[in-house]
Amino acid sequence: MKWPHQFPTYFVLVIGCSALSCQSPQVTDSVIDIVDPTSLIPAPSELHVVGGFTGPVNHLMVHGFDACTEASQSWIATWFADLGLSEQLANRGEQKTMVKASSHLWLDNDQDFAAKEGSYDLHIEVDGVALRFGDQQGLMNGLQTLRQLTPTDFWSEDFNGSLQPGFHWPLLQITDRPLHAYRGMHLDVCRHFFDVSFIKKYLDNLAFHKFNRFHWHLTEDQGWRIAIEAYPLLTDVGAWREASQIGPYSDQRFDSTTYGGFYSQDDIREVVAYATSLGIEVIPEIELPGHSRAAIAAYPWLSCQSESLPVATGWGVFEDVYCAGKDSVFDFLTTVLDEVMDLFPSKVIHIGGDESPKARWETCAACQQRMVAEGLDNEHQLQSYFIQRIEKHVNQRGRDIIGWDEILEGGLAPNAKVMSWRGEKGGLAAASMGHEVVMTPGKPLYFDHYQSDPSQEPHAIGGHNSLWDVYAYQPLSNDSSVSAFIIGAQGNVWTEYMETPEHVEYMVQPRASALAEILWSGARDSATFDQALQYHAQRMDQLHWNQATHHLHEAH
Fold first, then answer.
1. What is the pLDDT of residues 376-405, one digit of tens each?
2. CA–CA distance, 340 with 342 (Å, rounded to integer)
3. Cα 338 to chain center, whole Å?
């Protein structure tokens, strides 16, 4: 492996010894490559490099293994197998009758660990590693750091032990605490659908970068992607569109291919369980009252006009939305949300709330009667009524709602959290009222925008958000009383122009790496981060991630 020239040299010539030092050296001319700890992404909040390295790790004794969850044990065993370590050694806890270990890993699940959710301490010494944590997030975050500290030569799926006598870890002490409680990434699976295997790969990348929230955008005008037992037509009809828009929006060109797909409830359970094992909370989004054409195509009575409409084939915003005047619509939505909440244990449910035209409500007799009955002055207040009625039901199930910043219009629901996408104005307004806020402004956190010269890039929806735009972003306000309610930020991936997993990967990385760092440690050392990305690119290659590589040869 060739080390990027920007980093200090960490190659070590070992003369006749396999530990940190020896008394009677004999020349063996072996070269050891040690991962530079400053290449960690996100950068740790506190890093102390002791100097030196462990002995060669080829048999690792794990202590405290039986205290880990079954899912964590499976992840660790798989990782060790990928490294060429004996799976037997990764699966026997404290037993002492095993093959002599070359190193030790102590997993200390300390329930009294007084630190933020997801925190961990990692100490690497000559004879082993100690990882202290207080929750599943902390365990996985610490293990991901240890994984990044492992030379990428040992990550290969073709590894067959030829690199023995083993890899080495640098001696160090890390005390790692996340700066922001909410570190999120989003994925739209409605404009284009992605199967469970890719969703798991996407989650792997989030965990690798210490994200702890996955916002799963499951319903839209162009497709309904989650099976609801009470309303089977949502997927029988709503999951499929007759065509898809292709090329630039202004061209208004369409193919003639039926397109769709959906997740069964077993698929959802599988994804949620997998995410939980990685320390990630999955937040489902069920859009309302707008972006609802797919549901209306399945059940026309959900709209004001009750007209039969197809699932939308083009992108954009459509006037047909859920009718706010029909109690049957609220019965439908509460039933849907009950099934969703049975599948997702998340503390919050995303209810959309964005881009909901009022034209149908303005001419709908039932909606106008609702406004009179509820003493509402305008359709913006009617939307607020709609959101608050849904919120009351969700709250009764012990959950909170989160929505796009349009839910501020007409009055914010009492317990709602706000996701600010139209800049930061809405988020700051909500925070000033004491509501928790996640910042996700289109500039710079929409990863569907171009990241480099558009003439050299695959077609995108527009805009320009470079890697360095993301890295420079500061989600907090200068007003500390407002910042107290800004719990983090999120990168959004809308997929109108991303038809394949490879295209999604290209748009996500390395911008997600930049977002991960500013949310985890708040580091703003662009020179060190730029250098770290050089090595991190090798990690992403080993993970078979189709990353963009502008940062490897562009000035910033």
1. 999 999 999 999 999 999 999 999 999 999
2. 5
3. 24
Instruction: Give me the phi and psi of 236, to 5 degrees please.
Output: -65, -40
What is 182-552's CATH number? 3.20.20.80
Angular region, 316: left φ>0, alpha ψ -120 to 50, beta rest: left
CB 385 within 8 A of CB 324: yes
For the chain, what are the domain ranges?
35-176, 182-552
H/E element holding 200?
helix 196-208
Architecture of domain 35-176: 2-Layer Sandwich (3.30)
- Residue 131 CA, distance from chain mean position: 24
Closest listed residue to residue 136, CA positions, set 45, 214, 41, 67: 67
Contact 403, 419 (CB under 8 A): yes
Strands 46-53 and 170-176: antiparallel
Residue 20 pLDDT more than 70? Answer: no
pTM across the whole model: 0.92
φ/ψ of 282, rounded to 5, equals -95, 125
* Rounded Cα gap, residues 441 and 426, in angstroms: 10
Distance CA 140, CA 277 (A): 8
C-alpha count within 13 angstroms, C-beta hemisphere, residue 293: 24
The model's pLDDT over 195-222, given as tens digits with 9 standing for 90+, comes to 999 999 999 999 999 999 999 999 999 9
User: In which residue are the tokens 């902390």 written?
Assistant: 138
Quote the CA–CA distance of 278 and 274 in Å, as a whole number.
7
Q: How far apart are the first and last CA of the chain?
A: 27
Least Cα distance to 125 among 146, 104, 151 occurs for 104
Residue 420: beta bridge partners?
439
Q: Are 56 and 168 in contact (CB under 8 A)?
A: yes
DSSP string of 102-133? SEEEEEEE-TT--S-TT-EEEEEETTEEEEEE
> For the range 539-542, what are the long-range contacts, defined as Cβ-Cβ under 8 Å and sequence gap of 24 or more?
539/148, 539/152, 539/155, 539/208, 540/509, 540/510, 541/152, 542/152, 542/155, 542/156
